[in-house]
Design brief:
CATH architecture of the largest domain: Orthogonal Bundle
Radius of gyration: 58 Å
Helix content: over 70%
Distance between the termini: 82 Å
CATH class of the largest domain: Mainly Alpha
Structural class: mainly alpha
Number of helices: 6
Length: 273
């Protein structure tokens, strides 16, 4: 039972992670990665600063011990000289006191020498650690700068990818059916072309109808009448040909009127459906 629950938990975790990765915004994730890298670099700098500070403290302690050693060595020599002078003067008591002091100085000198050796060893180790920390900070700083430089490139590539995806989707909507309620571009174009063709066909049929022919005849008749009247006026003014031509034009106008009046009779009867 426990094993099954463990497997189910791992499965659900993997599923949730997969779903999250699919829906997550890469731009936000990129900024999170950059922020995390900057935080890591800041922590690394703090650790390196602590290592360097430890090295500096060790060096200061070593310098202080060396100063104490020189001072203690001088005191030891002075005690030995004073003990020797008291011995030569026959003052055994002072000679014994100075000798005891010189011995105490010597013991402290020996102990300080051991401390100095240990401090030197620590100073060498701290120096090596400090150099390694500096190198690690420099290396990580270069890597961070590289990531910062790549961030702009990745953001540009992300914008290009989004634009290409939008274009692909738009092209798909033009050439494919996107839904029952949304016609494609080709379907709309075919519908408009069919309507336009039908309108052109109806226009041609209207142009060939009896009514259009009657209108043409009436217009021609009016033109002939106008020409006949102008011919009469020109004749009266002595500018036109003989009156016979004017009469001829009037006869033509009368014929056209007769033809226009007879045109409706020539219209074919509508066929029964």
């Amino acid at each position: 039972m426990f094993k099954s629950m463990k497997r189910w938990w791992k499965y659900m975790t993997a599923k949730l992670n997969s779903s999250f990765e699919e829906k997550a915004d890469p731009k936000v994730q990129l900024e999170q990665a950059i922020t995390e890298a900057q935080d890591q670099h800041r922590r690394l700098r703090e650790q390196a600063a602590n290592v360097i500070a430890n090295q500096k403290q060790t060096e200061m302690r070593l310098n202080r011990q060396m100063t104490d050693y020189e001072k203690l060595a001088g005191n030891t020599k002075q005690a030995v000289l004073m003990a020797d002078a008291a011995t030569q003067a026959g003052d055994t008591a002072k000679a014994a006191e100075y000798s005891s002091a010189a011995e105490a100085f010597a013991n402290r000198l020996i102990g300080l020498e051991h401390e100095i050796e240990e401090t030197k060893s620590l100073a060498l180790q701290s120096t090596q650690a400090s150099e390694q920390a500096k190198a690690a900070v420099a290396q990580n700083s270069a890597a961070l700068q590289k990531k910062l430089a790549e961030r702009q490139k990745l953001l540009s590539q992300l914008d290009q990818a989004k634009m290409q995806e939008t274009m692909n989707k738009a092209m798909a909507t033009i050439s494919e059916t996107v839904g029952e309620d949304v016609p494609t571009f080709d379907q709309v174009r075919d519908k408009i072309e069919a309507r336009y063709a039908k309108a052109k066909g109806m226009s041609e049929l209207t142009g060939e109808s009896v009514e259009s022919r009657m209108l043409e005849v009436e217009n021609a008749s009016m033109n002939v009448e106008a020409q006949a009247r102008l011919s009469e006026i020109r004749t009266q003014l002595g500018l036109a040909p003989s009156a016979e031509e004017g009469q001829k034009l009037l006869e033509q106008a009368a014929d056209l009127k007769t033809e226009a009046a007879a045109a409706p009779a020539e219209q074919p009867a509508p066929q029964e459906g």
